[in-house]
Design a protein that fits this description.
Layout: H1 2-14, H2 39-47, E1 53-54, H3 57-62, E2 69-71, E3 92-94, E4 115-117, E5 138-140, E6 161-163, E7 184-186, E8 207-209, H4 220-226
Length: 228
């Protein structure tokens, strides 16, 4: 009973901004005592790698087997060569701050990819082949024009962080509950109306951000989890 009342108090505080903008019907649900994710977290990780960071495809193609980290951020790219599939040892691929409208399917054949950042582009869809990246731990889709997440995203059993914020997503596939290693899920600033109750099945989930959507009610199972 004490947990229930504590959750009601927390939810009341969180929803204080709702009355100012009632037509949006915004609900924010976030477990307490969890620090927000910083994009610098993973950047510090890969900057500490022993391998060299490559900043151009031309340099990477000179010795494809050597390339583990490729950072092409902020280069005004509108397309990406299929040759990226030659980088079989690639672990970190950063494509943020470009003008990409789609990703070549060869990216999804990279067997060792652990981090994929395609934030701040013009992507309208996420290919279903995303499910082939079995070793992916961090997937950042922030600030694109993606309208849906394919259910094949549930095949990413190593995934720990998924940031799909600032997109056009209207529905979350219930299969996302298969991501048993997922710890942080960012869905804020989308067009989501309903949350699948199966989100409550994620055993390691520490942070769920659903601010600025059109959700009228959080499923009981999720509310119960956040109050634990």
């Amino acid at each position: 009973m004490k947990r229930f009342y504590a959750f009601l108090i927390l939810l009341t505080i969180i929803l204080t901004g709702r009355a100012q903008n009632p037509e949006r019907k915004i609900i924010y649900c976030k477990p307490a005592k969890v620090n927000d994710y910083s994009y610098e977290d993973y950047r510090l990780d890969f900057n500490n790698y022993a391998p060299e960071v490559f900043y151009s495809l031309e340099a990477a193609y000179l010795d494809p087997q050597k390339v583990k980290i490729l950072d092409l951020s902020g280069q005004g790219l509108s397309s990406l060569s299929y040759r990226i599939g030659e980088l079989k040892n690639l672990e970190v691929l950063v494509l943020r701050d470009n003008d990409l409208e789609e990703l070549p399917f060869q990216i999804f054949s990279l067997p060792n990819l652990k981090i994929l950042d395609v934030s701040n582009n013009r992507l309208t869809e996420l290919r279903y082949q995303i499910g082939q990246l079995k070793n992916l731990k961090i997937l950042i889709l922030k600030n694109n024009e993606i309208s849906e997440l394919p259910y094949q995203i549930s095949f990413l059993h190593s995934l720990q962080l998924l940031d799909a914020s600032y997109n056009q997503i209207e529905e979350i596939p219930y299969q996302i509950s298969y991501l048993k290693n997922l710890e942080k899920l960012y869905l804020d600033h989308n067009r989501i109306k309903n949350l699948p109750y199966q989100l409550s099945y994620l055993p390691r989930l520490k942070l769920l951000d659903i601010r600025h959507n059109f959700i009228e009610e959080i499923p009981y199972q999720i509310r119960q989890k956040t109050s634990e």
